[in-house]
Amino acid sequence: MLQSLASLDGHTLILLCLSLGIALAFEFVNGFHDTANAVATVIYTKALRATTAVVLSGICNFLGVLLGGIAVAYSIVHLLPVDLLVSVNSNLGLAMVFSLLVSAILWNFGTWYLGLPASSSHTLIGAILGVGLANAVREGLPAGAGVNWHKAIEVGLSLFISPIIGFVLAGGLLLLLQRLLKNPALHRPPQGDAPPPPAMRAALILSGLGVSLAHGSNDGQKGVGLIMLILIGILPGVYSLDADLSPGETAMVRQAAARFTDYFDAHRLEIDKAYASGAIRELPEKASAVNCDVRGAVAASEDIQRQLALYDSIAAIPAGERWELRTDILCLDDAARIMQGLSGSAAERAEIEQLRETLRRPTEYAPSWVIMAVSLALGVGTMVGWKRIVVTIGEKIGKTKLSYAQGASAQIVAMATIGLADGLGLPVSTTHVLSSGVAGTMAAHKSGLQMRTLRSIAMAWVFTLPAAMLLGAGFFFLFTAWL
């Protein structure tokens, strides 16, 4: 890393430092913006003092990023079409990254200032969609070429369904607790500064820390993905591929590419029919500088095999040749995804998915220092700015104040929902899962809902995506003209 920095000219070095600084600022803002979602019920129910709760939440967010993996990170990254991902080492790619980060920071900070539990996930995804569509307009391409809509629909469903799950399951869990726990003190709002009964206090603390851990894992990965785009764009010879990939894993990548060559050759007639029928869209001439459509998959596969036959590991590949290999891998993977959708055999689809995971291994990674930096930014940010949203969660969603059992129900469901999403590699909104969980417990308890607050939260939920899309598109046009 230090050797690579020494080789950069002053302008590029400043650009790299500025880009990384903005990316880490996004994670810092994400931390203090979303802190209340993890600590609101713990603080409000007096299970922990505010300072203790916030510090512990920051530590758990830090650990969540370290332990969370990178599946969600690349789920976010692959919302962008392949043509943008293979041009990320250009001014166009840098304009894309700047647009995403600045849009997300501005919207996050604005909604935090207003005390609205808006979603960082919605913000970032909206900015990505806006950038993709703006790039399509800029290049004169149809809207369908601007975004990876297959991935966008998958991510959109996870963001839409998760709050519904939070509402229903948290309400159901509260009803169960009301039947099992007969102590009336557990179902009343906190009285003064007295802490909850010991067992309930432990449940609140553990579930609150669990939400923080899950939040760090899910939201921290988004920052990891953005930083990797920056590093790949500015230092492609170092970061475009995982140089730590072992010779054995490198050989598996080559074997996967060879298997795809056999697969596409065997299905050539079916591919031609799919083009003729419109099942596979003809690639617009301006969509990319490389041939990333299904018909170009065999050429990409053969290029991968040829390059990896010359070198036994990624580290042995000259820095100047790594970008070409990365481009071939992304193009082949995109073609395989299209063919996977056309396959009628479940066994064949499963085999293609396994081959794709193997093929993408050199391109989907993050160095440990990146994960550590994001962990610190998110963890420190979590320790700041929690007060504005805690009152909204504790007092303004329901017509009565939050009880111990309601807080525990909402937190346990949020922890489980976000943890499941992490396992599936899907981004979800910690904000909306927990807020909807609190609303679900209020509805189940028949304590009534404050519709004014819910309308504000719903408006933030509805308008965050289009607002972030407009911000992302606007900044993309601005930065492409400037860079």
Automatic annotation (TrEMBL):
It is a multi-pass membrane protein. Keywords: Cell membrane, Membrane, Phosphate transport, Symport, Transmembrane, Transmembrane helix, Transport. It catalyses: phosphate(in) + H(+)(in) = phosphate(out) + H(+)(out). It comes from the Bacteria. It is found in: Cell membrane; Membrane. Belongs to the inorganic phosphate transporter (PiT) (TC 2.A.20) family. Pit subfamily. One of its GO terms (biological process) is phosphate ion transmembrane transport. This is Phosphate transporter.
